[in-house]
Amino acid sequence: MKHSSFFVFAALIVIIETKKNDTNSGSIFNSRLASNCAELNCNNGRCIESGQGPQCICDEGFFGTICDQQGADFYHRTHLMPGLADPDILAVNDDLFFLTGTSNALDLPFFQSTDLITFHLKIIYNPSVTDPQYNYCFIWAPDLSQRGTGYDLYFSAQRVLKGAACPTNGQDVTTFFARAVDQNLIFDKPTLVDFGNNAPKGRIAAGCNAEGCLKTVRIDSAVVGPENDRWFFYTWFSGGNNIAAFSFSSPTNLVANAGPASFSIPATDEKINEAPEVFWYRGQYYFFISTAFFDSQYAMQYVMAPTIADLTRRRAVRSHSVAQRNSAGRLVQSHGHNSIVMRRGQVFNVFHQGIFDSAGRLIGRDTFKQRIAFRPDGSLQTLNTIDIRWNQLPLHQYSIDVVRKDGSTIGPCISVNRIGATLATTYTGLCPDGNNILLDKGDISAFRLFYSMTQVWKDFVEAKYDGVSDQLAFYLPGGITKQIVLRWNERMTGTTYSLDVRRQDGTWVSPCVGDIVIGSRIEYVFDGNCRQANSFIEPRAINYIRICSAINNDWPRAVCGGVPYDGIAIHVSVTIP
């Protein structure tokens, strides 16, 4: 027994030493022990049986024996399908996906993939062929969902009698429904949507149903939620494009989610809130909308809430992308009408990307995929923007270079002529002073901030970049922090917020910036100006920051969260319990 104990002990030492010297030894050890795929956990990959035993085939962005390490391309944006707009993607399982979208406006292509990278045409649905009575045109924005063992398809179109011109005057696009019984996706004859008495329904003619515009289903439908709580989202027209939703179990109880008919929306939205998309992740629902005209500054925004019914513009509306403009102010790229898909716990955003000519006119749309990254509070890192800030060196001016992952640089990307002596800029995925080169966040390894008093640009600091974050800070030697970007978690609908600060001497300024200024926003740039106290406090004179919240203006029962402050940090996050 003593000898066998010694051998066990010696074997343990060998294993421990091996693990010390090889960070991937656990992966190798596990894969060698497995005799078949049932015994091998491939993490972010799938297992195949081979002559050498079970092997892991890693998903995009991962590598390693058991696919447990992130690759350099983890946040790389992937081009999925040229010429496809308004994409909708459905995961049947982790290794089977269906993709559809707007193509030639006369039919709907369906593509199939097993890896979320390569898609092959599976079938084309032409409702004009399936329907013996009607022809269809302006076929847009399909939504594919699984119900039971079959598949539901909703799409937008005009419909006319056989032989009639399509499109035709006096009509507007509306929504139709078709059903396929299995994964062959052979859809039957479409029908105009009608959800019952006093409930929303489609309308062939222009204008609104007798029940009102809110109950007239026009375009961009989306079926969301689990099978026992399915919801129908759609876009309706009144003073622009608006979004509403209802539960299939109660179609007469409508929720107005977004749009100019129900909410005050910014001018940049161009009176367009459309293309709803909803997904659930770790206790939160996310509601995407696309804003502005499709051939203009089309962009994605989103709302977070704990329930589907709460997904409205009454909550904080957060930017996810901005359309990119070149140094002359002309559009070069836009993003929108997205669809979310998950694979083995990874979340991907599938969207169309607008392509513009040299005059800023839309000439095409392609479908792309981008991995989504979550902040600690559950909110999303943006698709293509980075808020870049730095502390101040008096009398200096600044310029920014970008370092690609291959080590090459674009410099200047954003020049002193654009930045001057200011202490912040926003990178949007384009270098306006670097020949308008487009460079996605996922392809960047670092940023360099040059600083000078004499226009001689030799001194710089470099900040490594992770390829996804939407905030980046430079800390110049001897610099003074002049601004603090504050973020905090959102509480229930109807909550407003205020900012308190504590000086180094222990005295409070409360409120420093009140809810009359901040309102329901969940981000604020503090520049030292305490507006409610009519005083100015340098960030370096502060040692504690507190965000307070009140529901329906009930400030006597405010709930607050705070963090110590070192007088230096530029980006600060606060959690309100």
TrEMBL record:
GO molecular function, one term: hydrolase activity, hydrolyzing O-glycosyl compounds
Disulfide bridge positions per record: C37-C47, C58-C67
Signal peptide range: 1-18
Pfam families named in the record: EGF (PF00008), Glyco_hydro_43 (PF04616)
GO BP, one annotated term: carbohydrate metabolic process
InterPro entries according to UniProt: EGF, Glyco_hydro_43, Glyco_hydro_beta-prop_sf
Protein's UniProt name: EGF-like domain-containing protein
Organism whose genome encodes this protein: Adineta steineri
